[in-house]
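Possible race condition, two jobs.
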Amino acid sequence: MRKITVTILALLLSLSAYANALANAGFEENTEQWQSWNNGLQIDTTTARSGSAALQLDFSRPESARGFGAHQLVELNQAAAAPITVGIWGKANAVIRNSDKRGRDGSWCRLSVFAVDQNGKQVVNWDSRRQEMHFYFEGDFDWTYQERTLVFSDPIKSLTVFMQGRDCTGKVWFDDLLVLNHNQEPPTAKTAYLPCELEEIGGQVRLENQFLKLLLDPTKGGRIYSIIDKQTGKDFTTTRANGGLAKDVIKEIGFSNLFAQFYLLEKKDASPEQVSVTLRGQHSKQEFLTILKTYTLRQDSSELLIDYELANAPEAMTPRHFTLRNHNELKVPGEKTRYLFPTSQGTSELMEGGGMQAWQNDLVQGWAALLGAESGNGLLCQVDFPALECFYNWFGEETNLEWFYKTVRVEAGESWKTRTSIMPLHQAGTIAAAKAGLAVEFTDLEQNPPPGQALDFGLKIHSARDTAVELMLKATALPSGETALLQRGSAMIGPGLSSLLKCQWQHPYSGTTLLTCTVYD
């Protein structure tokens, strides 16, 4: 029986969106943009990874003895140092080196990378970056993908990719090369969003943008007693005495002593682009502790930011230990709520139920989601993972999703800071990974395909902001480690929206398979 085990291994985020900087990367325009070295620019139209052409190095040719190949110079003109990703597909037929030497006069079949920084310094393949800047191709294998991300200390002006061989036997083919410059400027957002609003009403505070509407109560610990997703109209917490989001618990003060504590309105900022309020809380049981809590909404984002600062006054004279917990009543109104958590065994799910509690200690990322069992609408809560101790559910008089932080030591006169972000999700299924305002899930993987048939599935990306993403999807057979690149794609996503990319795997592995998706925005 075929078993497809699915997970997301990594959700990697860089600073900007980008596209392939190489021209004619698949040789479909014959030799256009490529330069020959010792008559090495030979295009084969009978063997290709995609399309109808690939570059071939045939080591039976006389040029092999002194080296031959093809290269392309790419002008990157980075304004600041940023990573550069280089990838290539290769296929080899009995490629064997005739000597053990790999130097300039040695025996090799490879893709080499040469860089020139903005100071004119050459960073070449035979320096200390030898292992990073060479991709070797030896032996017998079908189309296989190799990729590496290079990090340089200075901005790069240009990059040369060089497919070359010397003193070998056999044949090798290269196709579908890739150079991604992570320093490119992202596309400018074209959508105009409604301005943010801040209003004080009878001692309460309203924060609002196009996506979320929040009501805060400074007289009750500065909690959020209403958080409405304006797209669905759903309010995910309640105004009950024990209701609310971001109810503060400091273990050293006591479980509920801050729930009805008056928090001062320390600071407020309001502009069409952003609104924020900072609340200050204190308690006599920890007279030197000050809690600063800042709520922020931005015009172009569906994400609520909650910044905490726990400050130990200089007068304390000694370090103090504090343990923060957020006691939140959070559920999807009108339907049963599914709670999702990222564990070492994949995404675990807990269905809302009466009279029970559950501790979520086996965590590999700092997020939890609550979704309607029928609608798939809900919230994604992202917590500072290094500071997180666990998530906790209580299903009784309240329906809670809470997060506990590790105890922190704060020196006198210093403070500890952490951030939580909350964003709405719409028609979501089982989130596989989340980070920095993005969440990713696989779809349509409930049934295994019949033997010999392709596997059709989807990759859905949810975003809190306008962004262009590039993604790479790989499959790895376990335990052999055989890997195939399934798809590269791109998508434009707006705040509170999602993008579904349809994927197809023509020849699925039999047995357990790990699907790995890397997302760059």
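Job #2 (started ~2 s after job #1):
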Amino acid sequence: MKRSFLSSIIISSLLFSNVCLAENNDFMWEKTYKKTLATNPSLALSMLQDRYNSLESGTEKLYVSSKIHNFMMLQGQPYYGSTSTFDPEHSSREKLFIDAINYEGKLKFDLAKNNYLQLLSYANENKDIDGKILFEYHMCRLLNRQTQYQQASVYCEALHEDINNAVSSVLPKYVALRIVANNQEFVGNYDEALITYKELLSIIPVFEDASGVYNDAGLLLKTLGNYDQAKEYISIALKMRENSPLPLLKAQTYHSMGAVLFETGDYQNAFDHFMQSKIIVEQYQYPYGLMHAQLGLGKAMIAMKKFEDGIAHLLGGIETATQQGNSKLRGDIYLTLAEAYRIQNKYSVANDYANQAFELGSSIESERLIGSSLKVLASIAESQEEYGLALDYYQKYANSELARRNMRHQSAYIELETARKDHSDTKQESKLVTTIQENKKNIASLKEKTQIYQILLAVLAALLPALWYLRKIEIARVELDSLTGLLSRAAAIRKIKKQPELCSHHLNHVIILLDLDDFKRINDTYGHPTGDRALIHVANILQKELSVGEICGRLGGEEFILLLRNVDDLDIRDRVEHLHYVIAHQTFIAEDNTPLTITASFSFLATYKALSDFDALYSILDQALYQAKKNGKNCIVDAFNDPILFPPAAYESTQS
């Protein structure tokens, strides 16, 4: 018995020492490989190939094959695996594996998922814990990339449990923990994600590139609003990747830093980092990275009011996203374009892009994209002061968000059910049953909350029109000239500046600046009350003569401004002359009952372009009005076409 006991101790010791020796050998090999990779990539590839050739068929050989694939991809080279005539069964599994990784790179997620699930099923059937861990890792990563975070969490949690229970595994624990932490962040378990990142940083070997962990942790800190610490972490990642032989990793971190800088309002630096990312991904023909770089560049340029360049980047992003079949990102770019044109007061184009995003969201059944589109459409309508339409969009947006919330929880239930069917591990099935039951309770609770939310939404919908009406009355009270009832100076100019470019170049915005002639003489002769009557008299004429949607405001004193809309080229002069005529030929009554008439000097200009640069146009009109006074008053000067002699002060400034 002693001999038997002693033998068991010796065997156990030998087994333990063999495990430690194997782990130590793997550790030393990885350390040497990483060191070589940093200085001599060609030699590092040879090391990978030598290790691959020395291994027997099995999970470790598959894992090394995936490392060769990763190396080649980061060098911009394709890789399709190795075929062996000695073990066709292993070659078949390797082909499934490498094909899946290639499908994933080409965003063919369903094909990749099918292959990974076949491999995971084979590992479960053969009780291959290394294979189980490896393919749970790939399923977790794949579903994360598809944004199917709830379904991904099934595989990520199984991976987390299996990697913690394993004495050793082919897939390094620090590799597994990074993808687990990503999923915890995506499903909103931020505390757990921070704990996992902390554990990851504590176990990652010195020779291993920890830059990816710092990059991911930095992005999590950005999500939590801790921008200073986010920049600190991503700066560490950038420094670590500064001399990396794998440029695509550097491109990723440039993009991450750009995203953080954009959130802090440092748009120029954000642009510079997005551009660095774009240069690298273009060089290595990586379309997934290119789409995100183009979106980041466009957003940064638009934030800096460099609309033409920003829109060019966004249109390039649409082309790339269309080629890659990435509808969700294409929808995000449509919305960014819509916002860019809204800021420029080009509402027609803004509406077109927002509606394209809405239609795309409907076609791919993306409640997130539908809701975002409705919110942008509401914002565009509000900018045009179409408050009824804005309210309609906001109500649809609220309903969409409510539906999205319900769908998200229903989807969580469906995804968990799907994952249960796909994942054959008994222990995991037990966990899934518990999770599904909990989700059923949550859904029932959510339905009750949804009913309350719908009641509140109905009350809000009933109140909003009244609130909008009261707000419009208040705005009108503040923005109207108290004497004439016309728009005040600020209100009139703001409305004029919002006018977009006209679709037809044969139609025009016509801006008229007019000043009443000899107004001071009326005040001096008949008194200020009669002067006020004159102003009210002219205001009434102008309001009566203008069409719906045209603008009339009092700039101050006896000066008025008008905007005529959609005037045909041939009708411009007629409309201006008609207004000039009716003012001069209608009488009003002075305080002493004397009938009086008053004339006005006019300057005008016509353009089909947007009026956002009104300040420059006003300067031109003002000079033309000065010319009208110099011409003898009671006349009209075309600011763009009639000769204008500048006042002496204009010349004095250039001669000094």
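The chain has a mean pLDDT of 82.
Logs attached separately.
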